[in-house]
Amino acid sequence: MSTGTNAPQAPEVKPPGPRVADAIYQNNQLAARVVGPEIDLEAREIRFQELYNSDDLVLPEECEFDKYTIVVERIGFATLVERGSEHRGRVLKNVVAEILRCQETVKAGV
Predict the structure, then answer these.
(1) What percent of the residues of the chain are helix, what percent strand, and what percent coil, each to the nearest 5?
(2) What is the residue-level pLDDT of the chain in tens, covering all 110 positions?
(3) In what helix (H) or strand (E) does residue 101 lie, and over which residues does it extend?
(4) Residues 46/52, Cβ–Cβ less than 8 Å
(5) Phi, psi values for residue 71, rounded to 5°
(6) pTM for the whole thing?
(7) How far is the C-alpha of 29 from the C-alpha of 56, rounded, in Å?
(8) Distance from C-alpha of 62 to C-alpha of 17, rounded to nearest angstrom
(9) In angstroms, how far is CA 74 from the centroid of its own chain?
(10) CB-side neighbour CA atoms (13 Å) of 40
(11) Using omega within 30 degrees of 0 as the cis cutoff, is the peptide bond preceding 16 cis?
């Protein structure tokens, strides 16, 4: 008979793996893939020709692309594509996202 008071252990939290360059993330999860990103820092916008495989992208919640925290502001049009296609699920075309923040890499000793 055991008299110890072992509390249940929390599951191990693994750090997110490396990110894909042509993807949008929400909550550290890949939420959509991108085609033709055009970054306009002066307008504080990123324009995408297309977002595909975007069923998991929750709009209009904040998300991350490259080093930018963004929120989708406008969508030209949306469609659903057959599952057998490379660009399947919800496809968003002519998307404009507002840049909210930029995570700059800080160099040590500079």
Answers:
(1) 0, 50, 50
(2) 555 555 555 555 445 678 999 999 999 999 999 999 999 999 999 999 999 999 999 999 999 999 999 999 999 999 998 766 676 789 999 999 999 999 875 444 44
(3) strand 89-102
(4) no
(5) -140, 130
(6) 0.77
(7) 9
(8) 20
(9) 16
(10) 11
(11) no
